[in-house]
Amino acid sequence: MNKKLAATLSGGAVVLLALSGCGNDDAKVNDWAKGFCDKVQPQRKAISDANASIVKATSTASSPDDVKKVDSAAFQSNANAYAALASAVKSAGAPPVDDGAKTQQAAEKELDATSAAYAQLKKQVDALETKDQAKFAQQLGDVSTQLGKIGSTGDSALRKLQSGDLGTAMAKQPGCKSTPSASGASTAS
After folding, report:
1. Which residues contact 73 (CB under 8 A, 6 or more apart)?
2. Residue 172 · residue 22 · CB < 8 Å
3. Which of 131, 13, 12, 130 lies closest to 72, judged by CA?
4. Environment class of residue 127 by beta-carbon count within 10 Å: exposed (0-12), middle (13-18) or buried (19+)?
5. I need a surface site. Which of 54, 97, 165, 185 has the fewest CB within 10 A?
6. How many angstroms separate the CA atoms of 171 and 33, rounded?
7. Cβ neighbours, 10 Å, residue 132
8. Cβ neighbours around 94 below 10 Å, total
């Protein structure tokens, strides 16, 4: 079950940090990408660090109390980071591409929803009973299922934001470049 939680985290991270696309180098698009990506790097690190702490806690023989504490802190960190990413999308303004305002609004909405989902997971983890290990394991499995839903839904607007000319420009920015995650999978911003 702990491996399932770690795998779910790795899969969810890929959606956000994997940047790709093709197209020409338009100065306005590059400027937008630089402004946005400069704000992304600290959030990527926060998400990566939080996910790594969960993987470490769930892959070692940590006590239920320790796992609960680590997961709670990590989910709060992720909630804060995704809220900051939504703010970064908002403050960057509409990207200078076709349907830029629509793309921006959709990405902001998805990032806000992801932040809210992590905040809800934190509440769920905070309510876990740690005295009964069997019950704790079952409840942690429920958290893992919810975490899987976060990672598997709501990424279409982000993928659109990270595609075409805009995706190409973003992929060139240091703050948006994909890097290996702590779990060995590609991470996403």
Report:
1. 50, 53
2. no
3. 130
4. exposed
5. 185
6. 9
7. 11
8. 15
Cα Rg of the chain, angstroms:
17
Confidence of residue 2 (pLDDT cuts 50, 70, 90): low
Find all residues with CB under 8 Å of 90, minimum gap 6, and list them: 104, 108
Reference 125, options 146, 104, 107; nearest CA is 146
SS3 track for 114-139: HHHHHHHHHHHHHCCCCCCHHHHHHH
Cα(first)–Cα(last) distance of the chain, in Å? 26
In the block, tokens 């400069």 appear at 38
Q: How many CA atoms lie within 13 A of 179 on its CB side?
A: 14
Each residue's pLDDT tens digit, 60-107: 867 899 999 999 999 999 999 999 999 999 999 999 988 889 989 999
Q: Find tokens 């009973």 and name the residue.
A: 129
